[in-house]
Amino acid sequence: MLSTQKRRIVLKSKEEIELMRQAGKIVAQVLDEVRRHTRPGVNTARLNQIAEDALKRHHATPVFKGYPNQRQGLPPFPAIITTSINNELVHGIPSKDRVLQEGDIISIDCGAYYKGWIGDSAITIPVGKISEETRRLLEVTEQSLYQGIAQGKLGNHTGDISAAVQDYVESRGFSVVREYTGHGVGRRMHEDPQVPNYGEAGKGIRLKKGMAIALEPMVNVGQWQTELLDDGWTVVTADGKLCAHFEHTFAVTDGEPDILTL
Predict the structure, then answer these.
(1) Going along the chain, which residue ranges are E strands?
(2) CATH for 14-259?
């Protein structure tokens, strides 16, 4: 989700991290429910309604709906989740006219407020039977997320996370998007530090206990460049080739990184 906010790093206490975990668990449950309903013939407006109903049952409120566009004069985001199909990378808008087909892939991104804190996570879901190349794209993108999170340790730098994602993706023949990044998260959707999906190990901001980071590798089959559609939200690959997107929120601790969106 594009940021319009002035950012700063906010370190969270143990108690605040636990509240973020509650928000993150709700998001995980919403995404799981959307996944179970994702099949050929379903339109993306229906998936959005499923997510909205699930958030209400958990007494959580959506982060994305009404989120302002950073481009002046363009409308705020109109939906609960983003639904991005095939060559759509992020911020796709749900619609009754977008009906899923066998062999598609769809990225679902969801953010929820719960007790004043945000959970933020994304998955890319296969629709029916997909090709071997597409399956590999999803596998590499998701695994690159965990490669990056593994570097989210106290004393490391944001560049260690970024380099781990980039090295894993590019060594397997895919490319990482450069215009959009992971980010700090907490009471606000976007905080510092920004965490790109490419970079140099040992560079960037040193990680401190209490940082909460939403890491979100965005991976393309072709070139890394993207374009923005006329709706002011939907980002697509510039070459029209497939892309995938996975995201977890994790906290920096005294030990291993703590994933909050499970």
Answers:
(1) 61-62, 81-85, 88-90, 105-114, 117-126, 175-176, 182-184, 191-195, 212-215, 218-220, 226-228, 235-237, 243-245, 248-251, 258-259
(2) 3.90.230.10
